């Protein structure tokens, strides 16, 4: 598993490639900068970075609504 | 009247013809297959080796035939799982449109479409639950608040993209004499019914795009979504859970490496070519989704 710093850096790269120049607290899904069609790539990226699967049946839009939100939900394994 | 109602009226002759064919080809999925009590993933091929997602990568080159068959088996279950999840979304979308107030006259073929998709999942689920497992999908939808015409177009165009790719695999694997007869049957059976759905889908998407007359900004948004969807669909073919079950190390890194492998980029471009040619001819897509390849 990567460190939170590494995960955040790679998330920023992914998000900026798809959503442009945003900050870590930009609500990406609320503003439709990211949409459901981005999720398969985003989820597999997060799984690879944290080295553990994500339970896709328990996800809510708020889990992905910003880099900070993703870090809070997926950044560190419990 | 919605663009979808207009388009369905325009393709009604095709839908009626396909309905007659569906009645004639009606199958009972509960009696048609004689499921073996067990299968041997290391003895038989369950997927065409050239269509395994690791084919052409250094990892594939390093595997012996037994290990390759094992990967192909788990990937067959992964492919069937993708179909199960794709068909779940399709069934939901079709059911939501069945007897919608403006579409009541078009219910006939939608009933066949729904029925056939459900039957396909009986085959796919039958294989996965007996011999392997149903792999999860990472396609998650949080719903949209887009205009109905946009939702309708995206639903049928995404369905078409998904089915075109799947059908390519089904056509190849249904005819591949190296495969276990059960794998050949499941692929061939799906292909025969999907052939009708693809005829319907291509005609409907063409008519729907024309009937909707989207403004340039909306059309650009739809094109971006469809391009992204093609990439997301392909991403699901590189499944870390499949690699882990096949006994391969570092499954997430392996999925990433296979996705970027030149041989796999070429493969995805080859399999997507017919679908992309159609979407370009219908003016639905104006450029190749670069991320997919």
Automatic annotation (TrEMBL), chain A:
The beginning of the lineage is: Bacteria, Bacillati, Actinomycetota, Actinomycetes, Micromonosporales
Q: Which domain of life is it from?
A: Bacteria
Question: Could you tell me what this protein is called?
Answer: Acyl carrier protein
InterPro entries on file? ACP-like_sf
Organism in which the protein naturally occurs: Catellatospora methionotrophica
Automatic annotation (TrEMBL), chain B:
* A GO MF term: oxidoreductase activity
The record's section on Gene3D superfamilies has:
Ribonucleotide Reductase, subunit A
From the Swiss-Prot or TrEMBL record, give the protein name. Answer: AurF domain containing protein
The organism encoding this protein is Catellatospora methionotrophica
């Amino acid at each position: 598993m990567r460190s939170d710093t590494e995960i955040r850096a790679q998330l920023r790269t992914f998000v900026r490639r798809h959503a442009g120049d945003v900050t870590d607290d930009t609500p990406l899904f609320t503003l439709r900068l990211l949409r459901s069609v981005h999720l398969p790539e985003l989820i597999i990226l997060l799984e690879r970075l944290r080295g553990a699967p994500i339970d896709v049946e328990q996800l809510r839009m708020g889990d992905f609504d910003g880099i900070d939100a993703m870090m809070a939900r997926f950044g560190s394994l419990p | 009247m919605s663009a979808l109602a207009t388009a369905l009226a325009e393709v009604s002759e095709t839908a009626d013809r396909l309905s007659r064919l569906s009645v004639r080809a009606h199958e009972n999925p509960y009696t048609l297959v004689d499921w073996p009590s067990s299968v041997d993933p290391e003895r038989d091929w369950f997927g065409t080796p050239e269509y395994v997602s690791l084919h052409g990568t250094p990892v594939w080159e390093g595997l012996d035939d037994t290990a390759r068959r094992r990967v192909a088996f788990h990937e067959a279950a992964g492919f069937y799982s993708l179909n199960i999840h794709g068909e779940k979304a399709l069934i939901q979308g079709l059911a939501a449109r069945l007897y919608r107030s403006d579409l009541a006259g078009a219910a006939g073929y939608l009933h066949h479409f729904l029925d056939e998709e459900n039957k396909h999942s009986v085959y796919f689920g039958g294989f996965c639950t007996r011999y392997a497992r149903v792999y999860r999908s990472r396609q998650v939808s949080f719903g949209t608040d887009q205009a109905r015409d946009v939702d309708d177009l995206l639903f049928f165009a995404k369905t078409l993209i998904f089915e075109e790719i799947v059908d390519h695999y089904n056509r190849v694997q249904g005819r591949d004499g190296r495969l276990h007869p059960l794998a050949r049957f499941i692929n061939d059976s799906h292909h025969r019914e999907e052939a009708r759905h693809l005829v319907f889908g291509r005609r409907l998407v063409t008519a729907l795009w024309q009937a909707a007359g989207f403004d340039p900004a909306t059309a650009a948004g739809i094109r971006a979504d469809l391009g992204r969807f093609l990439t997301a669909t392909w991403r699901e073919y590189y499944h870390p859970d499949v690699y882990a079950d096949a006994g391969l190390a570092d499954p997430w890194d392996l999925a990433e490496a296979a996705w970027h492998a030149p041989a796999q980029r070429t493969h995805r471009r080859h399999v997507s070519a017919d679908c992309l040619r159609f979407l370009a001819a219908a003016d639905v897509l104006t450029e190749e989704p670069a991320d997919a390849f």
